[in-house]
From TrEMBL:
Pfam families named in the record: mit_SMPDase
UniProt superkingdom: Eukaryota
GO molecular function, one term: sphingomyelin phosphodiesterase D activity
Keywords assigned: Membrane, Transmembrane, Transmembrane helix
GO CC terms in record: membrane
Cytoplasm as UniProt keyword: no
Compartments in which it is found: Membrane
Organism: Taeniopygia guttata (Zebra finch)
Entry's transmembrane regions: 747-765, 771-789
Record's protein name: Sphingomyelin phosphodiesterase 4
């Protein structure tokens, strides 16, 4: 595409919009790359907001953009590779960002599209704690529509990139999309590795001037000084507004301003949708949920958590001399030291609390669970490798992680209790639910982990001797202004103080801590263990029932001519479809989960044996005849909420059996409706014609009489008719001896008759006659299938 000389931004923008309709995707990207290389920043400045929106979509979700969340290499390899190359940290788009960054342009981002707590804080004229928003709020002039943030090009680009995960929820999807293989997921991973490197330092941005450098963002005064409002309030936060420091005031922070900005944007856009006050309000069942994260959203957050662990664990060991540390530690190393506790911990904790309490009770919770478990195990992302061992023993958690566990105590204890409450309400017979219980139990059963959690609880419960009560809330609170490097908190050696500060900073001063290894939680674990035993019994009963069903469907069962299934009840449930392999996996998961829970909470053999015996006596023949939980009333049995749960999940059932006349019961799915009605009329005619003769035969006391009574009468129905006037009134047919031909209407019987017919033809009439009879039989079979099995209907004219 030829580049016109000094063309007006409006003309250039109109040309690019027309190209979106007329040119293929790859050609448009090549043309954009040429424009970025050749045009000056002054002309590119006008098209930058449109270009960002055309890539990531509009903030209201109407414009989809490039639809990076659904773009995959497997389904669209050309556009996938072109998009990744164009948006790469060293690609054309980032070159445009840095070119505009050098000129210190600013772009407006509406405050109304920020996460709920941030938007509410700014609209109430309270400056958020995160330094990302400092000196950026632009107030509307006379006639303005709303508040905006004045962002530099790098911030503007990353704001749109991060928030597109939230706003583009209704993207058109024509095929199954795996989030971890999408272009968006790959770009998140690429940006994290580039701007938060685990090895080396952050690569300098490319410069359009040889030997030049791109300056970091400079402080910018707000359009209206914050001191002009809010001074009449007495809160610490609002008093701070009048004395806000400059953004990136510390020169040492200039080296990693992109790393800090990227992380703050990701955390704010993906995690900061709930504040502590908002979360406490959300505990009420009458409060409507304001934001619902998706499974894809959680998977991206898990990627962020895993990378931050690797980034933090790449911190170089501290030198022995304290004086040497202050002179040799680089800004990036200092950033690694505080990245999780200062930027991530509080917002991730509230985000997880919300997910544990509001996520649906289905298998999609696995994404939340794995994200939580990833955060709990930073040692999995440490650079050192575990020693090679011939025995597959679980790796013990090193004592060096004790500080992390203590300073994240609520992540381990309170969220574990939240998972317990979820597990007690799920169907553990499902393999996916059983797997989740197994995963949590396996993680917490790692050697030395439970002991370190218990040590953290003991430190929290230590009596306060010296530490003032009000100091807890202020210890770990983030710096209210400037970069994290502008003021470092003094080192605190009191481990008890650190644990208390962590708990009170996340839950407030009035929080009543519930011990993970206390009596109340131990009783919940025992209840979960009991449910695991019951689920194992239920899985065994399903397995036995499936085996019996398979045996009954063997080859020789096709030759049964008795209506054995007429009065039988359906004893299966939806779980019959999971298969023997899934049932076996469920049993393995539950057995190992029970073993791990016993290790974590030191459950004795006597407790476990007593619980197993209780479950065994409660089950009658592996649950086959155990009724759902009911209470007796004047009107009979009434289901309790537990009984409804048992029926819905297939754990228990009522034994239903047809107790009327077998000839008059509803037509089954394995019967041909037309043939049932035809045979009923035929048997009724025979019973009416030979009723007296059958009565005489059945009254005989010899072998013939016993044979006729066995085949021509229904003793159970006769007994019910004699002693139940209701059944007698509802039975219009004679309840004496009679012929029943309904069994001939089942498909199994018809196919069995055809097989016997063909075999008899082969043995008695020879090959030639057999061929003729097979053709005749095939013709009859086709006629039956056409007029009876499929159901014959007259043509409509």
């Amino acid at each position: 595409m030829a580049v016109p000389h000094l063309q007006q931004p409006s003309f250039l923008l109109a040309t690019l919009k027309a190209d979106c309709v007329n040119k293929p995707f790859a050609q448009r990207c090549r043309d954009l790359e040429t424009l970025i290389e050749e045009l000056p920043a002054k002309e590119l400045h006008g098209i930058f907001p449109w270009l960002v929106e055309s890539i990531f979509g509009s903030l209201d979700g109407i414009i989809v953009g490039w639809n990076l969340r659904c773009l995959q290499g497997r389904t669209n390899p050309n556009e996938y590779s072109v998009a990744l190359d164009f948006l790469d940290p060293s690609g054309p788009m980032m070159k445009l960002v840095y070119k505009l960054q050098a000129e210190e342009y600013r772009y407006d981002f509406p405050v109304s599209y920020l996460p709920g707590p941030v938007k509410a804080s700014i609209q109430e004229q309270v400056l958020p704690e995160c330094s990302l928003y400092h000196n950026k709020v632009q107030f509307p002039s006379s006639g303005g529509l709303g508040l905006n943030l004045a962002l530099n090009p790098f911030e503007y680009y990353m704001f749109y990139f991060a928030i597109s995960l939230i706003t583009q929820k209704n993207s058109p999807v024509t095929h199954h999309v795996s989030p971890s293989n999408s272009a968006y997921f790959i770009l998140v991973d690429t940006y994290l590795k580039c701007f938060l490197p685990t090895e080396g330092s952050v690569l300098p941005p490319p410069s359009s001037n040889p030997g030049g450098a791109i300056p970091s963002p400079t402080p910018r005064s707000p359009a209206v000084p914050f001191s002009s409002y809010g001074m009449h309030h007495t809160s610490l936060l609002k008093r701070h507004i009048a004395h806000q420091p400059s953004v990136n005031a510390d020169p040492a922070s200039q080296e990693i301003w992109r790393s800090e900005t990227l992380l703050q944007i990701f955390v704010e856009m993906w995690l900061h949708h709930y504040s502590l006050e908002m979360y406490q309000k959300m505990q009420s069942p009458h409060v409507k949920e304001s934001f619902k994260p998706t499974e894809e959203h959680v998977l991206v957050v898990r990627l962020l958590v895993k990378h931050l662990h690797a980034f933090s664990n790449s911190l170089k060991p501290e030198p022995l001399s304290p004086s040497a540390h202050s002179h040799t530690a680089s800004p990036l190393e200092e950033f690694k030291r505080v990245v999780i506790p200062r930027f991530v911990q509080e917002k991730l904790y509230i985000f997880l609390q919300h997910c544990f309490g509001h996520w649906p009770l289905d298998a999609s919770f696995r994404a939340v669970l794995e994200m939580w478990l990833s955060y709990l195990q930073p040692w999995r992302y440490a650079p050192e490798k575990p020693p090679q061992s011939t025995e597959p023993l679980p790796r013990s958690v090193s004592e060096k992680w004790a500080a992390f566990i203590q300073e994240n105590l609520l992540m381990y204890t309170k969220l574990f209790m939240g998972f317990l409450n979820r597990a007690l309400r799920t169907d553990l017979v499902s393999p996916k639910n059983a797997l989740m219980v197994f995963r949590v139990a396996k993680v917490f059963a790692q050697p030395n982990l439970a002991e370190m959690i218990l040590k953290g609880e003991q430190l929290f419960l230590e009596p306060e001797l010296v530490i003032p009560h009000r100091q807890h809330r202020l210890f770990m609170s983030p710096t209210l202004g400037g970069s994290f490097l502008s003021s470092r908190s003094p080192a605190v050696t009191d481990a008890s103080f650190k644990v208390k500060s962590h708990v009170y900073s996340l839950e407030g001063q009035d929080f009543q801590y519930k011990q993970m290894f206390g009596t109340e939680v131990r009783n919940l674990v025992l209840k979960l263990a009991q449910l695991i035993c019951q689920a194992q019994q239920t899985a065994k009963s399903i397995s036995d029932h499936s085996a019996e069903t398979m045996a009954s469907q063997s080859f020789f069962s096709w030759f049964r001519f008795t209506p054995s299934e007429m009065n039988g009840s359906y004893t299966g449930n939806d779980l019959d479809e999971i298969g023997q392999d899934s049932i076996k996996k469920t049993d393995e998961y539950l057995e190992k989960a029970l073993e791990y829970l016993c290790q974590i909470f030191k459950l004795s053999e006597a407790q476990l044996t007593q619980m197993m015996m209780k479950c065994g006596t409660a089950q009658d023949e592996n649950g086959k005849k155990q009724l759902p939980d009911c209470i007796a009333s004047e009107n009979g049995l009434i289901l309790t909420p537990l009984g409804r749960y048992q029926i819905i999940n297939g754990l228990r059932r009522f034994e239903l059996q047809y107790q009327g006349d077998a000839e008059l019961q509803p037509i089954r799915s394995y019967e041909n409706a037309a043939l049932v009605r035809l045979l009923f009329r035929l048997s009724s005619a025979l019973n009416e014609r030979f009723a007296d003769q059958m009565e005489v035969l059945c009254s005989r006391d010899d072998f013939v009489g016993r044979l006729c009574r066995y085949h021509l009468t229904n003793p159970q129905l006769v007994q019910k008719i004699r002693y139940s006037p209701v059944v007698r009134d509802r039975t219009s047919q004679n309840w004496g001896p009679r012929i029943s031909l309904r069994f001939l209407a089942s498909y199994r019987t018809l196919i069995s008759l055809l097989m016997i017919y063909f075999l008899a033809s082969w043995f008695y009439v020879g090959p030639v006659g057999c061929t003729f009879m097979i053709l005749t039989g095939y013709f009859l079979y086709a006629v039956i299938m056409t007029f009876f099995f499929e159901g014959w209907k007259p043509h409509e004219h």
